[in-house]
Amino acid sequence: MRHHLWVSSALATALASAPAMAQQQSAEPAIGEIVVTAQKRSENVQNVPIAISAFTATALKERSVTSVASLSALAPNVNLDGGTPFSGSSAVLSATIRGIGSDDFAFNIDPGVGIYLDGVYLARTVGANQDLPDVERVEVLKGPQGTLFGRNTIGGAISIVTHDPGKEFKGSFDATTGSFNMVKLRATVDVPLTDSLFSSFTVSGINRQGFLKRIPYPDQRAGNSDPYTSFANADYANASREGGDNSVSMRGKLKWDNGGAITATFTGDYTRQDSPAQATKLLGVFPNVPGPFAGANHLPGTAFDPTSTTGFLFAGLYNFCIGSTPAQIAARNAQALCGPRGTQYNPQYQLAGLGSVNVDGNPLNDRLPWDSRFLIANPDLSYANGPSFTKLTAWGLGGTVQAEVSPNLTIKSITAYRQTNWKGGVDADGSPLSFLELSFTQNQWQISQELQLLGRAFDKKLNYVLGAYYFKEKGNLHDYVNFAEGLLQVDGPNKFNTENWALFGQVDFRPSDLLGFTAGGRYTQERKQFEGGQQDLNGGNYKLFGCAAGDGTIAPYGNFPLAPPVAAGGPPCYAALSYPNPANPVQVYVPGVNRKSFSNFSPKLGVQLHPSKDIMVYGSWSKGYKTGGWTTRLTNPQGNVAPDFNEEKATTFEAGIKSSLLDRHLQVNMAAFTTDYKGVQLNIQIGTSPTIANAGDARIKGLELEVVAAPVKGLTINGAVGYIDAHYTSLLPAALVNASPIPGIQAGIYVGAPLPKTANWKINVSPRYEMKLGNGGSFVVLGDWTHTTEVWNDIARALLLRRPTNDMFNASLTYNAPDAKWSLTLGGTNLTDTRYITSGGLNIAAGTAFGTYNRPREWYLRYGMKF
């Protein structure tokens, strides 16, 4: 209620102050116009009947916004994080708008917010947290954008528009230094080549030390653990600090424009990153969770406890193995589980057993147990010593050709090819043990072709866009995950292939100055292929069910203990345990290529009222969808069919007002919305495998208020308020509902529980004051305050990952020399050093909770010049 009153009071104050502000108006325009292309044509953002937060290049620079994730604090009902659980890379974007998004990077999980670079869709979240060195503007479109932008824009879209070449020679350069030995250089130059051919080139680079420091664990037993290089990984790079940056990006553009009917722009961009992993902390340990391994009530001939009450999960099994005598291990039939790790199918990674090493009378081979000794209160220290790297190469080529057939008809073509190659690795256990270490490789390429027909009719009262779109991508993702010193060794090669085409159109008709209508729709056909190869290189199930020979290798035949002993000549163990591939007995995923097809129609209807030139009231109804796919992260066989899931769908009603008042000294935009969110893709648990299913529905409703006020000359105040209520309205019984066996570590999900990555309230106030000096220069003082209420970072609402209500403050002081030839900025971010978890994961089987903190307080000093 307090926040509701605050919003009402703020709006009333802004409107009531209009007469006073009118008396102080200056002759010059106070609030600049922002032109956007949210509807595929250039328009003033105030004339577009969509809730849009738009940021110009100047605003981004002054607020020290250097990546897409940096926009998070400025846009209401938007959450943007650099990095997702497990990925360990800040180049991965986790985007949620109005409660809908995706917090994953895997190829099988498509984003819920579409990212567009100069009109080209970026299909993967890897590499989507774009650097913004030469951006003209960024548009954040909220709500389903299925009609004009297509699939996977169910929550919204973020459109990045880069700088176009100018017709005169000019350029800019800036150099920044700051906390953690940061050095950042950026330069852009426009070079006209002929009277009709223009070029621009931008280069940007950053080197910054990580803010989380790895320290050695002060116990000699740490050296007895198997090094992480003993296990399969995507790469074996590591670092003494995490959370650092080392990257370079380049972009070139050629634009041909002779003043005639045809213009063409050709682009090329390249990014290379070779940085340590995202800073990752161990937040909690759970070594004593009951489970099915090595139970006292094990089935005869096995180490399996079907009640999961007297045995262990992987963390507890590790402690049991190293701390138990041979007799105690034999009493639970766990000799194979505690014996040599690996199988003959991965001979290069076979390791000695763990059994009894701490009780064999030889202290020289003792191992550290898994417990709370590895927890460190300081958010910027860790005992990790495993993989830490993110290596990304991303590049693309594009061409946009526009032909003006007549004054009222234009044809536009956007052609693009993009490719990403990525390796990422993170030590999530924060210890010298290989308890939860993850690494990945992902390679992807995509081609896209879009044709647009842009037209006007009836004396410009009718505007329309008709289009066709084709998209194809191929790629592969390889997962490497090591649990509990190799007791589970997930190795997952996966291949993907997607082909998509669509037809779309939208008509905007304004028969009178008062009234306008919008109608549009998009029909999409999509085909997907997937081939999974997930396997456990330790062959743990065979050892669990008594199928392991004494030397730890998989016996070709064995008894299946859930039935009477198999007679000679019976089925091999892999068949009895439902392993699907006789050619590779450790493979848990069904071999072969899986195929799915999707079709969708996403319509939009809207109406606009224009009571005056500077006020628009609008209402709209729109739909969007996020495509389906397959679960890939299996730890056990799940039959002969690859587990798949279908689309998510959203239907949104929105009403809003956009107004520019007092000769553009006050701008007030407001939107209210409600969304019916169907088929939410959630984790359900099948055995020990987290499996994705369309397991829930949700209702989302809220409002957004964005105000820009220029009450006196030189002073501009930006304000934004977002309120949202996003909660589940139905859940399948199999959904992950407070699944933790440990009381008090998860709030769980249930009907009425809130959606993740979604704050009820977000409030931002950003005053900017520019003081002109007698020499023609100026001082600019800028402040940012963002208040965000509690956010749950994961679906199951782990308490250790909860982001508490917080207030963030940034500020800067800039001196602009006469004629803006050069400038000097001193600024600071997170001035109160407020720390919270931005992403993380809870893995009960490995006995770990891990997360990434936001960056600490930092300062920067930037020198910029123009020529």
Automatic annotation (TrEMBL):
Protein name, UniProt field: Outer membrane receptor protein involved in Fe transport
Subcellular location: Cell outer membrane
Membrane topology: Multi-pass membrane protein
Residues of the TonB-dependent receptor-like beta-barrel domain: 349-831
Residues making up the signal peptide according to the UniProt record: 1-22
GO BP term (any one): iron ion transport
PANTHER family: FERRICHROME IRON RECEPTOR-RELATED, TONB-DEPENDENT OUTER MEMBRANE RECEPTOR
